[in-house]
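Limitations
The structure tokens in this dataset are predictions for the assembled complex, not deposited experimental models. Users should treat interface geometry with appropriate caution, especially where small molecules or nucleic acid strands are included. An illustrative entry is reproduced here so readers can see what is and is not provided.
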Amino acid sequence: MREELVQSIGPEAAESPAVKAAASAEPRRTRIQIEKRERILEAALEVFAMHGFRGATIDQIAEAAGMSKPNLLYYFRSKEAIHETLIQRLLETWLQPLRELDEVGDPMTELRSYIRRKLEMARDFPRESRLFANEMLQGAPRIMPLLEGELRALVDEKAEVIRGWMKAGRIVRTDPYHLIFSIWATTQHYADFDVQVRAVLGPDRGSEGRFEDAARFLEQLYLDGLRPKA
Amino acid sequence: MREELVQSIGPEAAESPAVKAAASAEPRRTRIQIEKRERILEAALEVFAMHGFRGATIDQIAEAAGMSKPNLLYYFRSKEAIHETLIQRLLETWLQPLRELDEVGDPMTELRSYIRRKLEMARDFPRESRLFANEMLQGAPRIMPLLEGELRALVDEKAEVIRGWMKAGRIVRTDPYHLIFSIWATTQHYADFDVQVRAVLGPDRGSEGRFEDAARFLEQLYLDGLRPKA
DNA sequence: CACTTTTTTGACCGATTGGACAAACGTTAG
DNA sequence: CTAACGTTTGTCCAATCGGTCAAAAAAGTG
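Predicted assembly:
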């Protein structure tokens, strides 16, 4: 009678291969499972982004999600599992803007669009940015393979695109890698250091205004720098 | 006979200059106290920078400092006290480069020097940078007053200097606050996201080379941007 | 409806957390 | 030498940590 019962709902990826008919990992979740898992991830994003993995507690996440700790652990088998799901989901969308950098387009327009998209992400998904930043500060223990694999490959590819533009004289000759780094830095700064930005600028200027100012400044900077003409 | 004895060594009050007979709180520490406190702060910097305040444990710090936990707590009355000392000491030096921005000097030279100094700090004191970043990510609960006070005042002052340069036509007209933010972002990025930078660039290019490349790129960016001269 | 499956909860566990404390040890001035 | 002081350690504590488990409560399902 005793049956192998699933300990907690759905693995984040395939774990045991093909116990039943379904070969690949298709969790097959109920309405409640989908809803609750989403609520947990939402709450966990908030907490992990603020305190990092070690600093976050399951109780904290459970309370933020409005449920008891054992209940939360019914939907995710561990704190680690929540974080892993979050990170995985994040990286999927995080690199999208860079992927869209188009070799064929006008270089300055492409770069300007890229900067704007990254800036919009900092504005619209600041917690995701902070989650990522936290992971970096801790030495990226959980995503190092991804950094050295997928991320590096993508950056290499796009750096080559940029280098092509440089060789064609369409943008100035400089280091394409550090160009990409600088765009990441300047845009994510508004999410990661939001508190500081707000403290310095004061509360008067709303977030819309701040981001518009930032976009204008960055456009000026990346186009023509600071040195006055003539 | 029972005397009010000091629970743990000395308040975190900054070591004042050589002036003797200071009326206010002068800890008056032994050689061992000075040494051990320094070792603790060194270890704590490492741990706090990696895991943030909540994620760091006293045991971890004690082990990194090569002493027992009770022994550590003899020199600092709490985890909070260590962190506070670290933050206080950090901020003292952190803003120094900006303070040195000189109204009288040549604007482009001044800005270039500022960028270089900040970049050197990212290279030489990456843990301090990460400690600060962690504090920001957590919403700056411990240094908010300083951000809104001292930091903001300094930035306001220097923004005015920069605006003066703009009005005189010596640098291009743009937002001085976001200019400062962008310098912070691009330079600190090399400390805070060091792991990512390393993963993307590969291990071959040593840190000296990386920082030289970064310096060259930033100089190009801030001087003339990316658009090729027509 | 009865029956099965899913969801929720309370009680509990061993490990770790920040920290207290007195006893023991070391050092040094008189 | 000895008393006073500074330093170190072992032991202990209450609170919290991540996580388990059985049983109760809901929610489907025929």
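Some entries come with short summary sentences. For this one: Residues 30, 32, 57-59, 69-70, 73, 77-79 of chain A lie near DNA strand D (CB under 10 Å from a C1').
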